Amino acid sequence: MTQTNISKVFRVYSKRLGKTPQRVSTKLTNATQNPIDIKDGVILNGTRLALIPLSSQLSQEIKGLERKFSLDPAVVNKSNDLLAEGIDLHERNQLEESVKKFKLSGDLGNPLGLFFHAMCYRHGWGVEDDGHKSLLLLYQAAHVSILMAVYDQRDRDSFDELALKEHSYQIGLILFELGVSFQKGWGTERSYVNAAYYFKLAAELGDPDAQNELAGLYLKGQGVKRDKYRAAALFRKAADQGRGLVGNTWIYKDKYMNCTEKEKKPRRLSWWNLLLKRVPQDDEHLR
């Protein structure tokens, strides 16, 4: 990302939802009286969301996170106002003031406030770059975002399609960046396995960038078993959302078009593999 891309990411996020963060007037939730444990994962839009456990040291640093979390309309509105101010300041290149607003928004439990605060530490926007802090903030953002979706779903009489879309895109955006942290080794040891895990969750929630990155991992066999058919299916999903990659015409060839992400044609054995299959698996014939 370049220095100005933080606002671009926000605009993309807002465009997907068809709106910017809005003020709310819902009743005060009883979230703090009836906490939900997401340790084993929760289901949202058919996808089980569970965060990979951090080391004990990192876990201690995010302990008590739920106490920051609130769906009080006054708190939510304030956190959204701070988030909008932070975006505006960033676009005017007032980076140090911008990061303060993101921090205040995140401290009130706004997952996007935590997310943009994390991006500031990752890229050194208004603060000294710190991959460790960035990873912690992203983890917190994901945790809060998932909790908000669960509470919202539980407390509403009807969890409508717009609410589902709103939460799916927000969580997908955050999980994608968690995947990037593991893919690049930013703030943690590089792990393609963990990167693939988070990209898969985000891809299932509809994030096109995650679909492209997961496809790339399948294409190279990094963190997952190499599978060109699944890669093609994921690339097509991203392209359908306007995130197609230049030169990716091969994904529309007949042999890949007839396969979905979960299906692939049986692999034909070459004459060399067929010959090898006839060779005894042990060396008894040499004794």
Automatic annotation (TrEMBL):
It comes from the Eukaryota. It holds the Pfam family Sel1. GO terms for biological process: negative regulation of G2/M transition of mitotic cell cycle. InterPro entries: Mitotic_Regulator, Sel1-like, TPR-like_helical_dom_sf. One of its GO terms (cellular component) is cell division site. PANTHER family: ACTIVATOR OF C KINASE PROTEIN 1-RELATED, CHITIN SYNTHASE REGULATORY FACTOR 2-RELATED. This is HCP-like protein. It comes from Rozella allomycis (strain CSF55).
